[in-house]
Amino acid sequence: MSDSLAILIGDTSRLLRRRFDARARSLGVSRAQWQVLFALSRNEGINQAGLAEALDVETITVGRMVDRLADAGFVERRADPADRRAWRLHLMPRAHPVLEELRRVGDSVMQETLAGLGPDGEAELTELLTRVRSNLQQREPAAPPTSLAAGAR
Asked: Which of 33, 24, 35 has its CA nearest to residue 101?
């Protein structure tokens, strides 16, 4: 993959998040909050460690985000019946209308994003990005030893 393609993918992702963030802020929801809410809506009952992994952040960071969402009445922690030390995270009823509005915002942003592609172009882009994501989700091969590591023996 050329540097320009990698940059294009990264720029597109950043601009898409920025546009969504601007609209979500009008609902009083920060990026961290909507990311946690969406992740929980897809993984209800996940523990904080699993949520941290899904969001690619540290567990302590997720703990703080969940604390704020719990204080706002969007999320609750429930004891994990299989592990006394762990907590399972669940959405509270108050979170569902916010998620619905965020989904409407997301739909609107995606319509703007995909303008001019048409149904066939959108389907092709979806297929290609799904394939790229699948390639990246496959287990990474072990990296060959670097000359630095080889010299340390």
From this structure: 24
Q: What is the pLDDT of residues 66-77, one digit of tens each?
A: 999 999 999 999
Helices 48-55 and 59-71, interaxial angle, to 10°?
Answer: 110
Rounded Cα distance between 124 and 144, Å, is 35
Geometric angle at alpha carbon 125, from 124 and 130, rounded to 5°: 100
pTM score: 0.74
Whether 119 and 126 have beta carbons less than 8 Å apart is answered as no
Length of the chain as a residue count: 153
Write out pLDDT tens, residues 113-131.
999 999 999 999 999 999 9
Cα 137 from Cα 103, distance rounded (Å): 25
CATH number at 3-137: 1.10.10.10
Domain residue extents for the chain: 3-137
Residue whose token pair is 């941290």? 52
pLDDT at 84: 84
